[in-house]
Amino acid sequence: MNSLLENIVSANLHHASHGHVATYIPQLAKVNPNQLGIYISTEEEEDFFAGDCFVPFTMQSVVKPLILLQALMDSGENAVRTLVGVEATGKPFDTFNYSDQALTGANINPMINTGAIALCTLIRGKTYQERFERLLALTRRLAEDPNIDVDESVYRSEWETGNKNRALAYLLRAYGLISDDVDDILSCYFRACSILVNCRDLAKIGHIFANHGIHPGTGEEMFPAEFARYVNATLATCGMYDGSGGFALNVGFPAKSGVGGGIMGVIPKRMGIGVFAPAIDRHGNSVAGVKALEALSRKLDLSIY
Ligand code: DON
What we know:
Layout: H1 2-12, E1 37-42, E2 47-51, E3 57-58, H2 64-83, H3 113-119, H4 128-143, H5 152-161, H6 163-174, H7 182-193, E4 196-197, H8 199-210, H9 225-238, H10 244-250, E5 255-257, E6 262-267, E7 271-276, H11 287-300
Antiparallel strand pairs: 1-2, 1-7, 3-4, 5-6, 6-7
Helix pairs in contact: 1-11, 2-3, 2-9, 3-6, 4-7, 5-7, 6-7
The structure holds 6-diazenyl-5-OXO-L-norleucine.
């Protein structure tokens, strides 16, 4: 299996040239685009990996399933459904293209920026720093990696340049969907996006979602199965944004991408996959990462459709 992964890495790295590292967050523009890593955590408790799989990168939108999970754990499914729902938007992750109707109902979607910003308000904690700490603790616990932390320079970079997210948060406030201080909420959201992980961490987290909340090694319930179902369903329908249909067709399992180049793959009852390749396409999805997952899915027959 390791040699299969090595072949996939060497055969797909060149696809990075069809993408670009994200430049709208200045710190991300400094990342070397020619990297590709892959890590698989399997049911047999055996792990396989190849390429740049231990290189740290910021989670960016790959943290959205964890924000959703923490909100579900802290506020329950009804509150989450009422605030952001489950429906795909078919629009880019930072879209402003909202109808009034979309901003009054449960139509925001938890996987795009507006939904994730709104969901920070459903995480428990007296301050937004405390809410973020809960999210960080959850990330460390699911990845079994106590050293996971924030890349402060990426956080500052997002804080200083994230005016579109600021505007989206004010839009939520204008429509009465959030009422807390916008800067407080955004400090939690931007910090969450700036959590540093590697492919192993994403594979481990993805594996627990794949196993419906049960730790595949110890059998411990890390979170209720119905929350895994909620998260996995949204990953399947909109985890890859307005590229989710193509991804479902060509790759075929729930997954979440981030503009840092990470992708977390969830293959129900089978495995978790972490991929990293920082050059992204116009949807914000890693180009070489998606191609590598396509090849892997064909080889291991991973499509659930
Ligand atoms: O809020 C943002 O724009 C980034 N911190 C995260 C966006 C992102 O990762 C979109 N994903 N592909």
